[in-house]
Amino acid sequence: MAAPEHIVKRIAALRKELNEHDYRYYVLAEPSITDEQYDALMRELMDLERRYPELRSPDSPSQRVGGEPTKIFATVRHDPPMLSLANSYSEDEIREFDRRVRGLLGTQEPEYFAELKFDGVAIALTYREGVLVQGATRGDGLQGDDITNNLKTIRSLPLRLHKPSPTFRNIGVRGEAFMKRGDFDAMNRQRSADGERLFINPRNATAGTLKLQDPKMVAQRPMHFFTYALFSGDARLASHSENLEILRSLGLPVNEHGKRCRDIESVIAYWKSWEERRESLPYDIDGVVIKVNSLRQQERLGTIAKSPRWAIAFKFSARKAETLLKGITLQVGRVGTITPVAELEPVFVGGSTVARATLHNEDYIRDLDLRIGDTVTVEKGGDVIPKVSGYVPDKRPPGLVSFVIPAECPACGSRIHRLEGEANYFCENTECPAQVRARIEHFAHRGAMDIEGLGEAAVNQLVDLGLVHNYADLYTLHKHKAELVELERWGEKSAQRLLDGIQHSKTRPFNRVLYALGIRHVGESVARLLVEQFPSIDALAGASAGDLQTISAVGPRIAESILLFFGEKHNRDIIGRLKRAGLTMHAPDRPTTGKLSRMSFVLTGTLPSYTREEAKRIIEAHGGTVASGVSKNVRYVLAGEDAGSKLAKAKQLGIEIITEDEFKTMIG
Ligand code: IVH
């Protein structure tokens, strides 16, 4: 039985709409609908495709959430081959390249096109009749792996070209798939929390992701794409820069920083300016690529071996160096996490001297097979944090043994444990001096209680002398002023400065106090969200796992750790002492006389005339509070257009739902 006409039409309309939204969101960065609306459209499409399998299609946006798993990737031949680029590292080499090009072109003046060299994974795409039919890795340049289904999950890649003219319906496209640094960091943080292996850098993560056999897993990982080459049968194409314009008009993502350069000096200026600014980009680049702009000239210059004579990579100076791994020490964090640290022969890399670098955990060391005595490579990524990225096999002396994590905590001698599913070893002794110090340092640091005069060295002295055992002791430290003054390198002035700093910290708002307590998984932003919903320490301590998880950013992991913290008598005692010392343990008082006093609101959907921030400010000015999630404590849900799951939850709990007009009446 053929599908009814209206279903065929609806599916076509949904596909068109979703494709447009992907393009607006991922290429133009100008979304016009909310995530909830997008999800609703996608669900409708997937539902229809499930019911009418005969209408499924390889260019449907539903493919973005992951097609069927593949066992082995098929092999794809590249025609033309995927070339690589010769590298250069200095201005001299670049001027030499320019001389060579001029020499070969004779009287013609070359114009150059300079673009960024993306540090990702090279990809070849094929469009037939305007539809993406194949995507492959570079492989050896002649043949690579068919990873079409994985590439379809990249939202910035059009599954269907935008209004291609007949000449551009069948094209080959080359470009680079990559991950943004921020997304990469978030992914690694999550992997660390889940006890999974960490990726070394965004390029590695991209390469690993593209080789996954299950496209549904690939779809979970945020990848992007920039296109930098077009192949078509059209002989009228004239220049690389025009090709990029064509690619852009076909809906393909083209990086916006490419630039035509009149001569080699302006190419060098381009390189210099990006060498300085590379950190400002959300993705990694490892240099710039210089191309002769005219396609005629490119043809005349031709190719030698595997690289074209008309292009060259101009790399940035090394952010990578080799040095000796002298030892591996263990660092104990404030919640007892044991982190192995590489002790390196100091080496200058990416602008500073590096003597230590985190090795994250046991698996990281094992995966890289690092051994004490190895010559290792140290890299600085865009985040400027040095990483040990591998060892140099040729320089490994015979007889080195694999690293084994010691059985005992280096600070207190307790046995350390690695729990199932965790990547880290833990020292379970809460009295462990290393933990005590780290907790106090965390409590006092800039983003938390910001206590002047209480840095690492001071904390060490205070703990070693037994003046302070926990952070509550700081608030009785004034009783020991005489002893402080007598401390080595202290004196009256330093002692008073510290005591003033401690006194002053009592004015820090509740969210900072909460963060300073050092509850596992409660960072600055989670602390802020918690305070919005639970305006006092008692409210928070009394919350159940369910109450806590009404905050959307709080999952079972965070909830459990909060419950554990308040479940410890020791912690409750300390909080009691902090309260008595006069620390702020509740959110700022809100007007209690306002029209909305003691009323808690949840905002959802788009309001006709207020932004969320404005609505929040108005509610608070009238004495009300705004919670981030719907729970039974919420009095009203203020719902605008396209409200999603919060509205459903409110209905389920029988919470009153009001419109903006009704809200305006309430506040008069
Ligand atoms: S053009 C014939 N342009 O660098 C020229 N490549 O060693 C072929 N790459 O495998 C490449 N950004 O993965 C070109 N803007 C860019 C690039 C770029 C990164 C990578 C690409 C290629 C390698 C060349």
Q: What bound compounds does this protein have?
A: 2-(butylsulfanyl)adenosine
Largest sheet: 7 strands, antiparallel
Contiguous uncertain segments of 5+ residues: none
Q: Determine the N-to-C terminus distance.
A: 59 Å
Give the name of the CATH superfamily of the largest domain: DNA ligase/mRNA capping enzyme
Number of domains: 6
Q: What is the residue-averaged pLDDT?
A: 90
Name the helicity range: 25-40%
Measured by DSSP, the beta-strand proportion falls in 15-25%
Q: Quickly give the structural class.
A: alpha+beta
Q: What is the name of the CATH topology of the largest domain?
A: D-amino Acid Aminotransferase, Chain A, domain 1
Structure characterization notes:
The structure is a single chain. With 668 residues, the protein is of the alpha+beta class. The protein folds into six domains: 5-63, Helix hairpin bin (Helix Hairpins), CATH 1.10.287; 87-315, DNA ligase/mRNA capping enzyme (D-amino Acid Aminotransferase, Chain A, domain 1, 2-Layer Sandwich); 319-395, Nucleic acid-binding proteins (OB fold (Dihydrolipoamide Acetyltransferase, E2P), Beta Barrel); 451-507, DNA polymerase, domain 1; 510-581, Orthogonal Bundle (DNA polymerase, domain 1); 600-667, 3-Layer(aba) Sandwich (Rossmann fold). The strands form six sheets. Strands 14, 15, 16, 17, 18, 19 and 20 form a seven-stranded antiparallel sheet that branches. It is globular and about 85 Å long. The model has no long low-confidence stretch (mean pLDDT 90). Residues 83-85, 115, 117-118, 122, 138, 176, 228, 289, 308, 311, 313 line the site of 2-(butylsulfanyl)adenosine.
